[in-house]
Amino acid sequence: MLQTPGGPRSAGGDLATRLNVALDRIEHLIARYDLQAAHALRNYHWAQALTVGLAAITPCLIILAKENPTNGLLNWLQLFFPAIAAIAAGVTHIFRWREDAVRFTSLAEAIRSILWRFQTRAGEFGVSAGVTDEQALDQLVVKVDEVNVQSVARWSAAQVAEAPTATAPAQPATAGAER
Fold it and tell me: In the chain, where are the structural domains located?
């Protein structure tokens, strides 16, 4: 249910309550993005290891099948392993786990940086800049939300970005040449 400021289910108006709500949300975001980054990186490493391992085994299977032409299992495995390696490589490309790990790690670190500046009252949250605790909290919430929403917007744009078509005419290489 959506909450409105000052409504019956709102976080309250006092600074301590608002600070606790904001810090809980920020800690939740950081933990979630760290977890998502770890999962994405683990998936990427597993798929890459599978690709390399199966590709490395393939020549051995080819040699063994050549030495034992009547062994149907070896003949089948020499075809099966490269196919699975190709699928693992394709899945790695399709799901973009490495890019997701970088994105989630960067996002978590950006939010940590904002939180660190808030907690130490540095930069835009500084007392020397004439910012009260109430204003600093408002700025913290807005900045963290902006970083989060911008990340989602960039991810969404990347997901719907049109891939270059194979029928597009090739552009000649023009290194150093001006148009």
Answer: 25-157
